[in-house]
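hey so i finally got around to running the thing on that chain from the lab meeting. sorry it took forever, my laptop kept dying and i had to restart like 3 times. anyway pasting the input first so we r on the same page abt which one it is
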Amino acid sequence: METETNGSMTLTDNDFVICKGKNFSGDPPSSRGSFEFEGKKITSLPDFNNELVSLLNSDSPDRLNRAYEMAKAGYEFDPVFFPIVYNYGRIESIRKDFKNAEKIFLKANALMKKYYRTMIHLGLVQDRLGKFQESVQNLQLAAKENPFSDEARLYLCEIYAKTGHPRSYHRFPKLSYPFQRKVNESICEGMIEYYKRNFPKAYKVFRRIQIPNSDKPFQYSAKLHLLFAESALEVFDLKTAVQEWSKVLEFPFDSVFFDTSEFTLRRKIKTYTEIK
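ok and heres what got predicted. didnt touch it at all, straight out
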């Protein structure tokens, strides 16, 4: 992803955009102007952007609130600088301000058309806003733009499974990258049973899924762990439930937390660890 300032961008494993120099090496370029943030003069928006991403990766208890203030300030200074716009949208969705997140991701989508990550996030926040058609459309576009990413297809399967929509959601995993087809079909099967509240069958399906070995986290991992944990709880496999909830916590900025919270998961882990 090339910027207008002869710099470049890359995506971190936890789905934030960081800035680099030309050809993805060296320091990012300075801004054409400057702004004040907490009494400090900021002369490089790319560096400022990278600082907020580093903050999100830290152990600071106030990291999300402070990153929000930084992203908001950067966005107000330059609302067409894609890394800041994208990261601001991510932060707003994590904060569950879905209405503002949608507005920001629409802006990001206009700045960099057909970037599949933006379309995935746009589709997810629109789903939360009850905009079914818009959500499905953006997730379908994301799947089309990146045929090697199965994440959008899995979210599509989940949306149809949740709503019980008569349109076939079985077909989406069949369009996925062949190497992961079997895994994706099993995940969709488990989701369908889970949202039908057939928890014993969902549990059996999730239990047999073998995630492929990879240097990077398997896409959709966090939600898979959450659904497996909740299915395990329903069949009184408390050990598996605790293990799977613990795995969800490894993805602190995933959209899985649209459905739950870190506090809730830690409370469940504590409660059911004591019981088992």
